From TrEMBL:
The protein, known as: Isoquinoline 1-oxidoreductase
GO molecular function, one term: 2 iron, 2 sulfur cluster binding
Lineage start: Bacteria, Pseudomonadati, Pseudomonadota, Alphaproteobacteria, Sphingomonadales
Keyword Cytoplasm on entry: no
CDD domains: fer2 (cd00207)
Protein's organism: Sphingomonas panacis
């Protein structure tokens, strides 16, 4: 029996303590944002925040995180208004979207610790794999999210470089609670 907190809700999984966190989240809690990519911890599609660290959920057993606080992409911001999420939209980072939850979580954890990152620090830290090759836009989005978190810039929800303010306003309701 393992107990910890997921997205500010206490959970008690009656699963084998050797169960990977990824499967507990996806199968028992229906939190499907973290994706199964490689199963070896190399791709980062399953990245979640555990006690302020970006962790690969496929490589972490539920028994190993007893008493921890886990945040998934679903718990990052119910309104999808976290600066990293808004920057991802503004910089049109998403292509197919499969790797995005893990990248967003890795970036969010990174920006908790690094207020003014350099491009090299971002590239060294956000090592998630993306088959679509969005890496240059990821760097731009993380830099923008850092500026937003510092209060140097704002982003309108739903905005992107090709989006008019009117179009951005129409998109905001579509950004409601994440679907599972």
């Amino acid at each position: 029996m393992t107990r910890f907190t997921v997205n500010n809700q206490p959970v008690h999984y009656r699963m084998d303590p050797k169960t990977p966190l990824l499967w507990a989240l996806r199968d028992a809690s229906n939190l499907t944002g973290a994706k199964y990519g490689c199963g070896t911890g190399d791709c980062g599609a399953c990245t979640v925040d555990i006690d302020g660290e970006a962790v690969k959920a496929c490589q972490t057993t539920i028994g190993a995180i007893e008493g921890s606080f886990v945040t998934t992409i679903e718990g990052l911001s119910r309104e999808r208004s976290h600066p990293v999420q808004l920057a991802w939209l503004a910089k049109n980072v998403t292509q197919c979207g499969f790797c995005i939850p893990g990248m967003v979580m890795a970036a969010a954890v990174f920006l908790k610790k690094t207020r003014n990152p350099s491009e090299d620090e971002i590239r060294a830290t956000i090592t998630n794999l993306c088959r679509c090759g969005v890496y240059p836009r990821v760097v731009e989005a993380v830099l923008q999210a850092a500026r937003v978190q510092r209060g140097d810039e704002t982003i309108e929800a739903g905005a992107s470089p090709d989006t008019s303010p009117d179009e951005a306003a129409r998109r905001v309701p579509a950004l409601g609670p994440a679907k599972r």
